[in-house]
């Protein structure tokens, strides 16, 4: 049985939180650089500012966006791992506190959804655990901004709505979100499973490496078609018009009930913060 | 491309009326931040007939909550939050003399109508270019609701802060185009 110390987990979480908030993924950067020359209007100027902002943020270790999110953590723990030195939940929460303090990241969490007093340290995080065979420990940190989170939607379609029902709802979600979700966005889609699983799948879809298609050619084609349709809306960077409204559509699917067709659409802004690490 | 126009606060009616939707501007001068919780408190204070935490006339309200300033800097990363969340309160504030707002995204019809009726203006700033925008902030001072943390009302001295006229005083909206 492999032992992992909670102090190492906390340090890793802190490091990942800061990196996710100050560095954009190389795939996002490459995609924006490629799109920039194709857009002579306001949208192109916005892309240029986004690229410049990424450089400043990285070199000065400043957050790319002032909204450094509420931290969503996905942990994949091997069943042969033993966590020692304290509680795993607390270690992750401590890591968030440390990262947000030392990284000068914004504290954007309120303790109660109605009474709304800021917790002052960006804790608690939202933690999802998955137990897998082996002795690995994999952690993904996704500090989720709420400009895009607020524009996300979930619907329980019926089987008869079919693939067209899915496409229409995804497209409608992006159009309603418009500039609020900070385009060019990443569109995470969860289809099937149950009410809650569709939402978790949509969130996980935002974590997929940009440019990787769904392994099933049927769904890969739906992703490609939706991306084209979304980019025909001319919403554009920051909603100011242009060809790049979304950088990717990522779909995750799961088996579902004979009566159901759950569908969740989680939008990620043009920063789409997330970082992963192993221990 | 034409030279980008620079405007300086206080924004007079003359300046506001001379701006058209879709126009890019650089803002220099005083800007006050206020977002969700600050709006809630301001509304309660208005109802109670109390004095406002800052003068509305001529000033710009910026829907923003900056990240903490790192050592050696006056301001952390800063940028607009979704303006639509303030839609419920904005018509009342506009009726009480607030003319200029800055944020991100679409506004509801009552806000647009209030802007048109009172000769106001709504600027859109670009979301998520916050490290770059912090370069335009010259000083930051908390003027109200310090207990709200990032949601406190702050007076910012800005220099050449980039924005786009999203709704002009005639009610024309850039997102309609």
Structure explained in plain terms:
The complex is a heterodimer of chains A (279) and B (177). With 279 residues, chain A is an alpha/beta fold. Chain A has 2 domains: 99 residues, no CATH class; 131 residues, no CATH class. In chain A, 38% of the residues lie in helices and 25% in strands. Chain A is built from 8 helices and 10 strands. In chain A, the strands form 3 sheets. Chain A has a 4-stranded mixed β-sheet. Chain A has a 4-stranded mixed β-sheet with strand order 6-9-7-8. Chain A has a two-stranded parallel ribbon with strand order 1-3. In chain A, helix 1 packs across helix 4, helix 2 runs antiparallel to helix 3 and helix 6 packs parallel to helix 8. Chain A is globular, with a radius of gyration of 19 Å. The two termini of chain A are 14 Å apart. In chain A, 47% of the residues are buried. The model of chain A has no long low-confidence stretch (mean pLDDT 97). Chain B is of the alpha/beta class. Chain B has one domain: fumarase (Alpha-Beta Barrel), CATH 3.20.130. Chain B is 22% helix and 27% strand. Chain B has 5 helices and 7 strands, in the order βαβαβαβαβαββ. Chain B has a 5-stranded mixed barrel with strand order 2-3-4-5-7. At the A-B interface, helix 3 of A face helix 5 of B.
């Amino acid at each position: 049985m492999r032992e992992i110390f909670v102090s190492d987990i906390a340090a890793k979480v802190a490091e990942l939180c800061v990196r996710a908030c100050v560095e954009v993924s190389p795939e996002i950067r490459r995609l924006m650089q490629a799109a920039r020359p194709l857009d002579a209007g306001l949208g192109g100027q916005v892309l240029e500012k986004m690229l410049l902002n990424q450089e400043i943020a990285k070199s000065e270790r400043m957050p790319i966006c002032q909204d450094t999110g509420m931290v969503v953590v996905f942990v994949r723990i091997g069943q042969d791992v033993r966590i020692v030195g304290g509680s795993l939940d607390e270690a992750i929460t401590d890591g968030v506190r440390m990262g947000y303090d030392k990284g000068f990241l914004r504290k954007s969490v309120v303790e109660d959804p109605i009474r709304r007093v800021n917790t002052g340290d960006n804790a608690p995080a939202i933690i999802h655990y998955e137990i897998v065979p082996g002795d690995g420990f994999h952690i993904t940190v996704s500090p989720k901004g709420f400009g895009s989170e607020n524009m996300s939607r979930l619907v329980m379609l019926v089987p008869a709505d079919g693939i067209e029902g899915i496409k229409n709802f995804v497209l409608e979600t992006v159009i309603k979100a418009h500039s609020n979700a900070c385009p060019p966005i990443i569109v995470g889609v969860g289809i099937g499973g149950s009410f809650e699983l569709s939402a978790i799948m949509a969130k996980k879809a935002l974590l997929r490496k940009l440019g990787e298609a769904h392994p099933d050619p049927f769904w890969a084609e739906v992703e490609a078609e939706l991306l084209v349709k979304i980019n025909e809306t001319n919403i554009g960077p920051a909603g100011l018009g242009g060809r790049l409204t979304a950088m990717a559509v990522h779909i995750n699917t799961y088996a579902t009930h004979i009566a159901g067709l759950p569908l969740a659409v989680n939008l990620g802004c043009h920063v789409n913060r997330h970082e992963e690490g192993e221990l | 491309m034409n030279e980008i126009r620079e405007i300086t606060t206080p924004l007079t009616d003359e300046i506001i009326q001379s701006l058209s939707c879709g126009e890019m501007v650089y803002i220099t001068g005083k800007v006050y931040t206020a977002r969700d919780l600050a709006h809630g408190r301001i509304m309660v204070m208005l109802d109670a007939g109390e004095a406002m935490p800052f003068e509305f006339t001529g000033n710009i309200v910026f829907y923003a909550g900056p990240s903490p300033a790192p050592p050696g800097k006056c301001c952390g990363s800063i940028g607009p939050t979704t303006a639509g969340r303030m839609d419920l309160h904005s018509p009342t504030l506009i009726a009480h003399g607030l003319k200029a707002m800055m944020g991100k995204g679409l506004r509801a019809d009552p806000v647009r109508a209030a802007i048109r009726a009172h000769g106001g203006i709504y600027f859109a700033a670009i979301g998520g270019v916050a490290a770059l925008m912090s370069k335009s902030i010259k000083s930051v001072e908390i003027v109200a609701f310090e207990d709200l943390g990032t949601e406190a009302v702050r007076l910012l001295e800005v220099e050449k802060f980039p924005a786009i006229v999203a709704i002009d005083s005639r009610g024309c909206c850039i997102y309609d185009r």
